[in-house]
Amino acid sequence: MASDESPEIQVALLEEFKIFGIRLQACPDGTCSISSFVLSYSEDNEHYIESETFGDISLSGNDFQDFLLEESIAKAQFIKLRVRNAEGCVGLRMEVLAERSNCPDGFHPKLRSCYRYVKTSLPYADAQQLCNRKGGYLVEIFNEKENDYVRELSQKVDGSDIFLGISSAFSEGHWINEHGSANGFLNFNADPSERCARMLWDGKWADNACDWSLNFVCESGGGNDCPEDWLRLGGGCYKLVDEQLTFFDAVVRCQDLGGHVVDITSVYENTAVAAVVSGEKAWIAVTDLLDEGRFLSYPNQQPLSFTGWNGHEPNDWER
């Protein structure tokens, strides 16, 4: 294999998979030096997208060497490796390190997630619920690279401002996502004072009232990997058990199903559970068993990180 050649290796998978790396082997015995190679992927074997470049590679003998992607490819069926400046490589063997892809219908893979632009202007809570129904959640941006991708996705459609999946509704100044976690990456163009956030055309963020109607992007971390008959909403799996049970019987029933009585930790999870319950009454994992009137999470008896009591509740401590 001459050093000025740029040979390619292509692998066609039987179906779409999530790709997190490749494994290379030089054969036969010997040393193979490669200055760099580029990994590309495609869903249709026509339009390839460059994923990542690896450099200064030395493969010895028949040993395998794994190359893990910095950002997994969420969904692809065709993988192409283009080698640059190879020396002593009589042959190369490539294996694809992958797992089944589970992007929901209508979502497109990128980075470590699946994304879907929704060109429908809705208030924040309605946008959140629509994403939940489609198998995802309002987009949660954790770094500059993801911020750039979401900006480009919006600009390709119409460049409108879009809702982001963070809010300070529970505590002013503390921005958390739908899963109840603090967002470590923030990109506001000024100190925010409202409770919801949107992305502007240039990728910067601005605060806004939650009752504004905006377009939005839904994200899915890879699709519905929940048990059968369970519903994925945001980062959790939920199931409404249509049985009238006491609290402790409900605890046992949920354990039998492989779960637990829902422990609501944020306003976003509260919204998700409300969508599942659809107006029915349902137990939540909160009790005052240890100290009447002092409600803690069950069974770990920790202070509640979120409460959504109605009116003058709680007012029935004897039950």
Automatic annotation (TrEMBL):
PROSITE patterns, per the entry: C_TYPE_LECTIN_1, C_TYPE_LECTIN_2, FA58C_3
Keyword Disulfide bond: yes
Annotated C-type lectin domain residues: 114-219, 233-319
Domain of life: Eukaryota
Keyword terms of this UniProt record: Disulfide bond
Presence of the UniProt keyword Oxidoreductase in the record: no
SUPFAM superfamilies, per database record: C-type lectin-like, Galactose-binding domain-like
UniProt domain F5/8 type C: residue ranges: 1-99
Pfam families listed in its UniProt record: F5_F8_type_C, Lectin_C
PANTHER family the record matches: MANNOSE, PHOSPHOLIPASE, LECTIN RECEPTOR RELATED
Name of the protein this chain belongs to: Putative SCO-spondin-like
Organism listed in the record: Stichopus japonicus
